[in-house]
Amino acid sequence: MKQFLTTTILLTTGLICYANSERLTKRMHRVDFSQVFIDDAFWSPRLKNNAEKTIRVCIDQIENKTGRMRNFEKAAIPEGPHSGIFFDDSDVYKAIEGMAYSLVNNPDPLLEQKVDEWIAKIAAAQQSDGYINTFFTIQEPQNRWNDMDKHEMYCAGHLLEAGIAYYKATGKRTLLDVGQHMADHMMTLFGPNKRTWVPGHEEIELALVKLYQVTGEHKYLEFSHWLLEERGHELGKINVRENIPWDKRHYQDIYPVKDLTQIYGHAVRAMYLFCGMADIDSYIEGTGYMEALNRVWEDVINTRMYITGGIGVAYMSEGFSEPYDLPNFQAYCETCASIGMVLWNHRMAEASGDGKYTDIMERSLYNGVLSGISLNGDRFFYVNPLASHGDHHRQEWYGCACCPSNVCRFIPSIGNYIYGTSDDALWVNLYIGNSAKFKMGKQNVEVEMNTQYPWEGHTQLTLKKKLKGNLRLHIPAWSKTFEVCINGEKAEYKQELGYAIVSHKWKAGDQITIDIDMPVEYVYADPRVKEDVGKCAIQRGPIVYCAEEIDNPGIFESMQISATTDKWQVKQDNMLNGIYRITNGNYNLIPYYSWDNREPSQMKVWIDNK
C-alpha cells in the first residue's frame, strides 16, 4: 500500500490571573540546555564547528567585513552614514546570543571579552530615553516609531533575547539592562490608551515573555499580550516611510490572532508570531490562542509543508500561496523558517504533551535546519530548495544575514529539545548522546544517554540516580516497530500521543534501551502537490535523502525508482563527515542536509517513480 502525504510529509494521525502566572499551564516543561552536556557522534562535531567556525565567521563579518559593529560606534556620537540594512542590529544581537549559549558549555575567556567589548559599544549607543536602533539614530532620527515595518521592535526583541542569554551565561547584566530600558521606553509610547502598534516583523512578543520570566515583572507579559491583541483590526495602518499601503497579509494582520484558521504571509514572521502566542497562552487564561494554533498547525502540516519540514515558496515573498503549492526548484524554505518550525513545534509539544509536534520538530531539525549550514560550519543557505540545477550554493554571508546569525544561536542551544519533565514523568523527545543533571519536581535527576541516532535506532538511557515517575519515550511517527527493555529484559509499556510510557520502580543504575527500526521508506506526495505527481522520495529514520549528480553521473536526469523492484542497501561512508549512504546498486542517495558540500552539482529530493 502506498503511503500518501498531504504535503510531502508523513501523515500522522481574557482574564489575566497574574497572581498565579508563575504556574505554567504546560503538560511538559523543558530541561534547559545548560543542564545537558552533549557527547554525541552526530551533534558534538556540529557544536564544535559552531564554537570554532560559525561564531568566528559572524564576528569577522560583523566587525570587519560589514559595518554592523561600526554602526553602534557611530550611533554613540552620532554621525553617519549608516551602513547596511535598517534591521542589521539584529544580527549583532543574535550573534551575541549564540556566543552566550556557546560559553555555557564551552568557557572561553577571549570570546567573553569580545562580547563585553561589543556590549560596551551597544550600551553607549543607547539614547537617554532608552531608545536604541542604529539606523534611526544615525540616519533618520525624525522617523523613529513612524513605520511599523521598519523592525524597531524586531531588533528590540533580539536585543532582549541576547541580554537574557548573556546574563544567564555570565551573570553580567549590562546588555539585559539595555534591553529592559528599551522595553520600558516602548511601553511609555504604546499600550492601552496610548499609541497603537503592530510590529511588521514579529519577535518582540516572545522576547517580552522571556523578559518577564527573568525579571518577574508582569508588565512585560501584559505588553506582549497587548501587541498580539492589536493584530487584525482596522487601524488605518500604512508604511509611512514609503507611503505605501500596509500589507496586512504579509504581516499576519488580516484577522485577530485568536481567529486564525490558516497560515498566511511571511513564513518566519508567522513562526515567531505563533511562538509568542503559545508563550502567552501558557500564562494567560482565556486567550483562545492554543485553539487557533492547533487550527493553523493542521493547515501548515497538511497543506503547506515540504518533506524536509521547510515552509515557504520563493515567489510569494518568502511566504505562502494556495494549499499544496509546493514547487521544488522554487521552494524557499528559509533556514530561519525551519528554525522557527522547531521553536514553534517544541512549544506546542510542551503545551500538549503530544508527540505529533515532536515529530515535526525532529523533521525540521534534521533536514530543514541542518541544510542551512555547511558541514564545515562556515557557509550558509538562506534558501533551501528541494531541487537544483547546480547553481544554488551556500555563501559565507548575505546582505540580509538573518540566517547565519540565527544558526549561530540555534545550534548551541540544541540541548533544549532533548528532555522534558512533568509532575509524574521524565520525557525523552530527541535521541542525542548526553549526560544531564536537572530537577524534576523536588527530585534531582541524573541521566546519561548513548546513541548512534539518527543513523541507528538503538538508544540506551542510564539512570544515575533513583527516579520516581514514568519514562515517556518519544516514538517517531515514521517508526513501524520498536522495542523497549529494562536492564536487558523486554519491558511493558503503553502508548499515548506518540510516546511509550514505561512504568517501573526505578533505581540508580537502571538501563533502559529503546530500539526503533529504521528501514528505507518510500514517501509519496499528496496528489494535489502537482510537481510531485509520479514521483517519490526516500527517507530513513528522521533523515530525508536526495540525489546529487556528482554521485550519479550520466544517469541523474533519467533516474527512476520503484518500491516494488528496488532493493536498497544502507552503507556507512566516511565522505561528507560520515554519513549513511543509501544505494540500490545503480543510484546513490545522500542525506538532504549534506548536499552542496562538494563541487557544484544538480540535486533533487523527488525522483521519478517507475
What does this structure look like?
There is one protein chain. This protein is of the alpha+beta class. It has three domains: 323 residues, Glycosyltransferase (Alpha/alpha barrel), CATH 1.50.10; 97 residues, Immunoglobulin-like (Sandwich); 90 residues, no CATH class. Helices cover 33% and strands 18% of the residues. It contains 14 helices and 26 strands. Strands 1, 6, 18, 19, 20, 21, 22, 23, 24, 25 and 26 form an eleven-stranded mixed β-sheet that branches. Helix 3 packs parallel to helix 6. It is globular and about 70 Å long.
Q: How much strand?
A: 15-25%
CATH arch. level architecture of the largest domain: Alpha/alpha barrel
| CATH topology category name of the largest domain | Glycosyltransferase
Count of DSSP H/I helices: 14
Q: How many beta-strand segments?
A: 26
Distance between the termini: 16 Å
User: What's the alpha carbon Rg, rounded to whole Å?
Assistant: 24 Å
> Strand pairing plus helix content: what structural class?
alpha+beta
The helix content, as a percent range, equals: 25-40%
Q: Given the C-alpha coordinates, what overall shape results? A: globular
* Total individual domains: 3
CATH class group of the largest domain: Mainly Alpha
The biggest sheet, with number of strands, parallel, antiparallel or mixed sense and barrel status, is: 11 strands, mixed
> What is the residue-mean pLDDT, rounded to a whole number?
93
**Which regions contain 5 or more consecutive residues with pLDDT less than 50?**
1-23
